[in-house]
Write a structure and sequence with these properties.
The complex is a heterodimer of chains A (262) and B (612).
Chain A (H helix, E strand, L loop, with lengths): L8 E9 L6 E9 L6 H10 L27 E4 L2 E4 L5 H7 L4 E5 L6 E3 L2 E2 L2 H9 L20 H11 L6 H5 L11 H12 L8 H9 L12 H5 L6 H22 L5
Parallel strand pairs in A: 1-5
Antiparallel strand pairs in A: 1-2, 3-4, 3-5, 6-7
Chain B lengths: L6 E5 L3 H12 L3 E6 L15 E2 L3 H5 L4 H11 L6 H20 L14 E2 L9 E2 L5 H18 L3 E5 L1 E8 L5 E8 L5 E5 L2 E4 L20 H8 L4 E2 L4 E8 L6 E2 L3 H4 L3 E5 L16 E2 L1 H5 L9 H13 L10 E4 L5 H6 L1 H11 L8 E10 L2 E2 L27 E3 L17 H22 L9 H20 L6 H15 L6 H18 L13 H25 L17 H4 L1 E8 L4 E8 L18
Parallel strand pairs in B: 1-2, 1-10, 2-6, 10-19
Antiparallel strand pairs in B: 3-5, 4-5, 7-8, 8-9, 11-18, 11-20, 12-13, 12-17, 14-15, 14-16, 16-17, 20-21
The chains are: A alpha+beta (262), B alpha+beta (612).
The structure holds flavin-adenine dinucleotide, iron/sulfur cluster (2 copies) and FE2/S2 (inorganic) cluster.
FE2/S2 (inorganic) cluster binds next to loops of chain A.
């Protein structure tokens, strides 16, 4: 990937941070333009040539990625001010957004920074534990098929099950903040997903208890930012509404039947 | 740190590792699960097309587990070991049932049954699928079950931890691992009464492939250098249909063809008209013409060679290295089932496959070879003895290999939608074998002296320090690019002696340069350059074994095609390639080991080619 003498460069302005609790700083790098680049191939170029525009030797920028085809959710960052995956952020598109030819990369702000563009999203995985995001099967023994399901129900579940725990919806949500308790759209939607499964719904009551507890669904302010940024087009506002309805019914049931049994 | 309860270490949280973790936790043992990424982000999420199993509908149409078994062996050009494949095909329907119970949103028919699609190397619909993101859906189901065990304390996850080396005791048995925290860079030993490698494939050795970025084969190469053997390292699958990209080649799943997609090139060389304007009569559907029986669904090795040769002969689009994969004619309902891959195509190329024929080219995709493992066959060879400790154990006692890193099941060429199956099968069927092994051990790892573990931890500390302090001139990222280029040029679709020799010399040179490199990050916090560079060193070692096997296998079989030995040679090469690492010479030693064919005899593998 060495640049012919007269190709144009794309300038990257990258927010860096050497470790948790350290101060952040900006660095700029130039990457020679080629058609069909994505942000990750530019970061790879910078890793190979870690020299800033000012000619200072630097270190490769640290970022998280794996699949490079927008299915693992790892590579989320804030690109030109918008949260998205760096593997599917194509330069030709980004350059249209920024006529000046500069691309800005920052880590997500709602999760603690590990280093540079890499953040710690364990909060999202912990939320899956809180809502018991699984189907409570008896075991792996041969017990025949699962519950029959209509093509329509499968279609809805499939649309929800594509959530790749990327964090875009949480980054965009005004209620989800570094250090607060709100569980966020991702987990709310997953609760709906499991409540839609024949066996998964056995745990619906527990999930709704979690949804009604502190940091639960009542913290959602219905700003609907989440659904706009979800790369998998997961119907998050529908999920929030569905869980809201289930929670209301559940609350009435609890009122008459007493507190949850553990 | 020593606890006296037996524990099993699993390295890798893709489908194979997760299936193993669930099965082992269920049997009552504790599992320590290591992964370089949160397990939910493992490479298995990339799988698109589906998972094979004979189900009741297929059965009533004349399909059977035996046919699935036979197709797999025929597809693998008879290099597969038959007893494990027999078991895999027979357990497949039960695996689908289990996944179904776990909540995988498999596509449904109008009556609510699980839908099926056609896939390569079969004339029957027997591939179960969840849209075009089957791997992601299966991964999530297993990830969820593993999380359930995690909450109960039976599975402990070590995510963002990198496996560095197996701990092997004086008797040669594996008793734990050395791993490094990829954030704090802490290196430490972990005790384990058995260790299961489930670390996936090695596509990164070829630079750009359809694989995820951590699929370096580094973990397998470390086991190999520690004394575990490799089986069939030269067998690498090149998938016929991918979109070449700057950072990776993105797969366009076989399901596109399974659902009716057609591969063609313009009949006229260098035709510059857009595909939609080229009339039907002026298109050459070369796969359909040459293989009327299987058409676009010939196995991957064959489709890849045909595409490669068409382009070599100047028939590629505009004379270049691309052919059309056309789905524009499919009905809307079918297109909907392929939405997951169409999105990828549109996202990365800007064209909508519903309206414009896709442009594709072959790309490195799957590692048939891997760590060498054995098994205990039943007396009649119809399967393995369930729970026998030998099943999928490497030559190092206590060290197992599951999933893509295991060389079993696929022989010389893997059939589409059989990989997900083999990964889950390994975990579910062979997990109990590791449990049995642990129960048979007299001295638990917890009682071994700390010095054994410290010795290996020290070795890894020293290696890491040497890399950090290396003050040469070579850039590891540049060396990796060169490795990828040379392996792709000489050791993929078409191989021959001179090219392989050129490649081997080049890789030797790269290994020399590796000893004189310089890291641009020498810090001790989240140093990704260190991890990458260490893996590069191991990729170079693995590449030598691949090249050595490819050079000594003087025949053509499955994905291994030699232009200087174009025929299969059963007399000499119906054999497993076993690569052993010679520590003194720092080189692979290749041996060949006969493959018994107790259930299915080798036959000509033509797939009904018309001129064959
Ligand atoms: C694009 C694509 C599409 C595919 N589609 C299909 C399909 O439709 N049907 C099908 O049957 N097959 C398909 N395959 C093949 C299939 O996806 C893989 O063979 C399978 O997912 C491999 O699973 P695995 O569990 O062996 O390993 P992986 O899923 O690759 O997981 C490897 C694990 O090991 C860990 N690991 C690796 N190295 C280390 C280390 N040094 N230290 C710690 N942890 C480590 C990783 O973190 C990861 O958790 C496809 C493959 C690709 C590339
Ligand atoms: S609707 Fe608004 S407040 Fe609620 S989760 Fe979405 S973005 Fe957050
Ligand atoms: S719901 Fe969408 S945005 Fe949120 S984590 Fe899942 S995939 Fe990402
Ligand atoms: S690398 Fe997996 S989503 Fe971008």
């Amino acid at each position: 990937m060495t640049a012919p003498a007269n190709t144009k460069n794309i300038r990257f302005k990258i927010k860096r941070q050497d470790g948790p609790g350290k101060a952040s700083y900006w660095q700029t790098f130039d990457v020679p333009y080629k058609p069909n680049l994505n942000v990750i191939s530019c970061l790879q170029y910078i890793a190979e040539h870690p020299v800033t525009v000012a000619g200072e030797k630097s270190t490769p920028v640290v970022w998280d990625c794996n699949c490079l085809e927008e299915v693992c959710g790892a590579c989320t960052m804030v690109i030109n001010g918008k949260v998205r995956q760096s593997c599917s952020a194509l330069l030709d598109e980004l350059l249209k957004e920024t006529p000046g030819g500069m691309v800005t990369l920052e880590p997500m702000t709602k999760f603690p920074v590990v280093r540079d563009l890499w953040v710690d999203r364990s909060r999202m995985f912990n939320a899956l534990k809180t809502i018991q995001a699984w189907v409570p099967i008896d075991g792996t023994h041969d017990l025949g098929e699962g519950p029959k399901e209509s093509a329509e129900n499968q279609d809805v579940r499939y649309s929800l099950s594509r959530c790749m725990t990327c964090g875009c919806c949480l980054e965009a949500c005004p209620q989800f903040l570094l250090g607060n308790q709100f569980i966020g759209a991702q987990a709310i939607s997953q609760a709906r997903y499991f409540n839609l499964h024949g066996t998964g719904k056995v745990l619906a009551d527990q999930r709704l208890d979690a949804m009604m507890g502190p940091g639960g669904i009542t913290d959602c302010g219905n700003a609907q930012n989440c659904v706009k940024v979800c790369p998998k087009e997961i119907p998050l506002t529908e999920s929030i509404a569905a869980i809201g309805r289930q929670a209301t019914v559940h609350a009435v049931k609890r009122f008459f039947n007493g507190p949850p049994r553990k | 740190m020593a606890s006296s309860k037996p524990r099993i270490i699993i390295v890798g949280g893709g489908l194979a590792g997760l299936a193993g973790a669930i099965k082992i936790a269920e049997s009552g043992l504790d599992v320590d699960l290591f992964s370089m990424v949160p397990v939910k982000r493992s490479h298995s999420v990339c799988a698109q097309g589906g998972i094979n199993a004979c189900n009741k509908v297929a059965r009533q149409q004349g399909y059977s587990e035996w046919m699935h078994f036979d197709e797999t062996v025929y597809g693998g050009d008879f290099l597969n070991h038959q007893p494990p494949v027999y078991d895999m095909a027979n357990m497949a329907p039960k695996i689908i049932d289990l996944l179904d119970r776990m909540g995988v949103p498999f596509n449904r028919t109008s009556e609510g049954e699980r839908d099926l699609r056609l896939f390569g190397g079969s004339l029957f619909k027997r591939t179960h699928f969840a849209g075009a993101t089957t791997g992601q859906q299966l991964m999530y189901a297993l990830d969820e079950q593993a999380r359930r065990w995690e909450v109960q304390g039976k599975v402990t996850k070590y995510e963002f931890w990198e496996f560095l080396w197996p701990v092997v005791d004086e008797q040669g048995a594996c008793r734990g691992i050395i791993a490094q925290d990829m954030r704090t860079m802490q290196i430490r030993a972990f005790r384990g009464d058995a260790v299961i490698m489930a670390t996936g494939g090695n596509g990164l050795i070829f630079g750009k492939s359809t694989n995820s970025v951590i699929c370096t084969g580094g973990a397998a190469a470390r086991c190999y250098q520690a004394g575990a053997w490799l089986g069939n390292p030269e067998f690498i699958q090149v998938h016929p249909t991918a979109i070449p990209g700057e950072d990776k080649c993105r797969l366009m799943s076989e399901s596109a063809r399974g659902e009716g997609g057609r591969v063609w090139v313009p009949r006229k060389k260098g035709d510059t008209r857009p595909p939609g304007q080229i009339p039907e009569a002026e298109r050459w559907y070369f796969l359909e013409e040459k293989y009327p029986k299987y058409g676009n669904l010939v196995p991957r090795d064959i489709a890849t060679r045909e595409i490669f040769f068409a382009c070599r002969d100047g028939l590629g689009i505009g004379g270049g290295r691309m052919v059309y994969l056309d789905c524009t004619h499919l009905p809307d309902a079918t297109k909907h089932k392929l939405a997951g891959i169409f999105e990828i195509y549109e996202k990365f190329t800007g064209d909508d496959p519903c309206h414009v024929a896709m442009k594709i080219f072959p790309a490195v995709h799957y590692t048939m070879g891997g760590l060498y493992t054995s098994f205990e066959p039943k007396p009649d060879f119809k399967g393995m003895v369930p729970g026998h400790p030998k099943n999928m154990m490497t030559n190092v006692p206590g060290l197992y290999a599951f999933g893509e890193v295991n060389y079993q099941y696929h022989g010389g060429n893997r059939l589409g939608a059989n990989a997900l199956l083999s990964c889950i099968f390994d975990g579910l069927f062979c997990g109990p074998s590791a449990v049995q092994y642990v129960q048979d051990q007299k001295s638990p790892a917890a009682d071994l002296p700390e010095s054994l573990y410290q010795k290996f931890a020290q070795q890894e500390e020293t290696k890491a320090r040497k890399l950090i302090e290396s003050n040469g001139t070579f850039n590891p990222y540049t060396l990796h690019r060169q490795l990828g280029d040379v392996m792709t040029d000489y050791c993929t679709v078409v191989r021959e002696e001179n090219g392989l020799r050129t490649a081997a010399e080049h890789v030797d040179r790269l290994r020399d340069q590796f000893r004189a490199l310089k890291l641009s990050d020498t810090g001790m916090w989240t140093n990704q350059s260190l991890s990458f560079t260490r893996a590069l060193g191991d990729m170079l070692v693995y590449a030598q074994a691949i090249l050595a096997g490819a050079s000594l296998r003087k025949e053509s079989r499955g994905a291994h095609y030699r232009s200087d030995f174009t025929e299969r040679n059963d007399a000499q090469f119906l054999k497993t390639t076993v690569a052993k690492y010679d520590k003194a010479k720092d080189r692979p030693v290749i041996e060949f080991e006969a493959v018994p064919t107790p259930l299915i005899q080798p036959r000509a593998r033509t797939y009904g080619k018309v001129d064959a």
